[in-house]
Amino acid sequence: MSSVIRIGSRRSPLARVQAHLAGTALRQQDSSLPLEYRFIESSGDRSAEPSAALVTARGGFTEDLGELLDRGEIDVAVHSWKDLPLRERAATEVVATLPRADARDVLLLRRDSLDAVAVRGLRILSSSARRRHHLEQFLSWALPLQPPRVEFAPVRGDIGTRLLKLLRGDGDSLVIAKAALDRLIDTDPQELERTGGCGAARLRESQQIVQRALAACRVMVLPLASSPAAPAQGALALEVRRDSPLRELLRSINDTATFETVRAERALALELGEDEPLGVTRLRLGFGDVEFVRGTRSGVPFEHVRLYRHGSPLP
Fold it and tell me: pTM of this prediction?
């Protein structure tokens, strides 16, 4: 490890914000820590593959950063944990996370398309088989209007790109992770620049796009009982080499509750079938954990809500 702690992430505004959150947590432990950031475009960002799930399964959003760790070019990689393949890499390990953001998805529906949707149907921008599985049934009763049909169109790109595609009319609606919107809106661009996260101008531009989209749309936060999220959605993964001297420092900022619940989600998803369109979200509440699972298993619809106390399921 170099004398400076080098934090790597993707170069999108959201990824920069997430790297900044990790750096800020480290500086809260020791304000004198020297930090540097390295931002890259991943092979997944460049891929034309319409399915983000397939890109994730192949490590397209995270493998490039893992290789930088392998070569010692960065010391810590910060990921959206849901972007990591369910099977762990041999040479690296996720050793810490921060408190989880809201795990739910959000449905944005353009106000100017409401009348047309009631006549011709609803076109939803989403490349996720999981979201398609959940929403086809959920929207049949949850919307105040009943479109004659619902169709899904693939969409890729960072948050701003997807929101602009919605605003320009590529679809009537878009499904997006609430955590992404929250993090973009809640981050001060000047603070990002001051602490070395850089990209303040791009963050301001993304914030303006988010605000335009929220003003132009009806917004529905999707309930986890009907639409559980991708395993680990809303959580950050701090990945290091297995022999890294930073392991103990990173564990000092680890949010144990988030770490345990997210690892449980990922373990269950791997057990049920990593190639299945599956939503798994576990929440830690005062009495224990509640786990929402919904999707398919070997092509058969599958769902449950399960309660846990002290790590064991209740009868």
Answer: 0.92
